[in-house]
């Protein structure tokens, strides 16, 4: 059963540039309607940023962070003697995870409302819950002396905020805003929201958790909450609302066995014979009767239409005749940095000792988040994401070699999990998206929206697709939505012109 289907068919030839989610989805949808598609992919694997790493995989990085002169303030330490040529290979990591361990180095979570789930259904990709928020995980901010469980920090924050609001209400401070009945209702709400009882004073309670969980005994409570000033100093607003956003709310989902199940299923439907990996595009030309795309080595391919589904910052560097306005629009989005570290442990200590089954610890350390796996519970091994950072934090890790990233992440993680955090690691791999060949960024930011609408339209016979052309940047759903829009428009044109 398919949700999206182009009406009527065509056998027109289409060259799709890029075998990421957007490119594969275009080829898949056009293929369903009879089009003759060929997908050109510069990397040696399909999927683009939808990259799941397993034992046996090899991850190569560029020798330099691209454009590091322009976008980063600190100088890039040379990794080897001499200056590497642009595009030169840098460090290579060999992934040695055990059987069954996987690491979603790119996209990892899907919200219920996203079209990505419709593709999982259509493609028969089985799903399981991705635990995004977990009350048992920790928060740690610079304003805290020690990490706290999310549940404890939340109970204290809600409790004191409720107390303050209830006391202000009782003192008449809100009388201009509230009727007598409103006050009554607000106080009732706050008594539940903050668990503050009739006294309107927060004094802790079971929501904070226990030192010893209840069982045959009543349980040993955690003790009284810290003073209000400590709770405010912790600046918990951001870390406690991570999963409140529309894109991050539970339940979220992941494909069983790794995110790349989606791109693998797409590639299988498109057909391996139509996908040419290791094929870098060097020129894109609109001709009067079609498009001509040249690839490394000098061969050129002709088609009726082209869908360019590469990152804009790479597309902008490919010569051709798309026009100066299009070229400058393509050069507008700024590639951003993000990085992830996969740590494979030989023992699932976070489940056994910390009683954390999936979810994320939120910090304002340079590691950003620690993620606990949502699969393989109680298995022998487990894959923790030791950092998932963005912006300047990611830029700092980008510049490091893998060993150095690992060392730094373990020092940071020990602030939450103690010295055991660095013990029992079987394998580790880090991905710095700015240094991934033929990708060179985690996602993009539009510093101004100029050029955004120009690229929604084709340049001659060349269409553009990708998450970067939507309001869902950094989501596979953006790539799918863009692909659907582009193939619809291309198809209408083909039907009109035939
Ligand atoms: N989609 C990515 C994630 O889930 C990046 C992102 C984060 C995008 C937060 C928007 C908001 O982490």
From TrEMBL:
Gene3D superfamilies named in the record: 1.20.1440.240, 3.90.660.10, FAD/NAD(P)-binding domain
Region (Disordered) location: 67-90
Domain Amine oxidase residue range list: 86-490
GO molecular function: oxidoreductase activity
Pfam family, one: NAD_binding_8
The protein's name: FAD-dependent oxidoreductase
